[in-house]
Amino acid sequence: MNALNEFRQVAILGALRGCRLFSGLAAHDLNNIAAISVLKTLANGDYLFRQGDPAHGFYIVQKGSINVHRANAAGKEQIIHIFRAGESLAEAALATDTGYPADARAVESSVVLLVQKPGFMSLLRRQPELALKILASMAIHLRVVVGQLEDMMLKDFETRLVNWFVTRCPDRQSTKPATIHLPMSKSLLAAELGTGSETLSRTLQKFRQQNLLKVNGKIVTVLNPAELSRVLEQRLSC
């Protein structure tokens, strides 16, 4: 094995070990999966796949972020989830021949690992326990989508944003400040919550003026989680 191939093999095994889907697998199992996997590099804005494209397998994010989305009835992009390092996506492609069910685009320079469908299906037939891990991963993704649908049903954007911060406080009943590091740009957060960047900026400014939040770049401090929780309860009861 030459130096380049050896480097790629190390990178592939590193991505597999870092993926929760394959946690606990023995080294020989990881080697078998590595043998049917391919690294892909994406620049910011590059599409990994588009809705309806033939499914070649599922992906693991090694580095960067992948925005999975669909267009709503108005033609507006609706984010389903943003996948980051260690997360797997498009496992549903293993169970269907209809192609990928959504679009996936890199939102920063990214490296992903394609676990190719034919080889992995053959592996599943030999090791059925891997199928249980795939099902568990798909169940987690479903809970994420259901949670997002519940958030979108909240009556207005301000309520959705308050809920977003409250659910990310380690202790929502604490009176001590809680620091939240935004895992995405503010424009992506706005899109995920179903609004535009300007609306998000105005709302954050309003919450700052109400002494609910302190914002410094991608670091948001919830000054009093218990107070913000009360604000959420009041909004939901109106």
CATH topology grouping of the largest domain:
Jelly Rolls
CATH architecture of the largest domain: Sandwich
Number of strands: 11
Instruction: Summarize the amount of helix as a percent range.
Output: 40-55%
Distance between the termini: 66 Å
Largest sheet: 4 strands, antiparallel
Strand content: 15-25%
DSSP summary: helix tally: 8
Q: Segments where pLDDT lies below 50 for 5+ residues?
A: none
Q: What is the overall pLDDT average?
A: 85
Report what the structure shows.
The protein has 238 residues and is an alpha+beta fold. It folds into two domains: 3-152, Jelly Rolls (Sandwich), CATH 2.60.120.10; 157-237, Winged helix-like DNA-binding domain superfamily/Winged helix DNA-binding domain (Arc Repressor Mutant, subunit A, Orthogonal Bundle). It contains eight helices and eleven strands. Strands 1-8-3-6 form a four-stranded antiparallel beta sheet. The longest helix is centred in the middle third of the chain and has 24 residues, at 129-152.
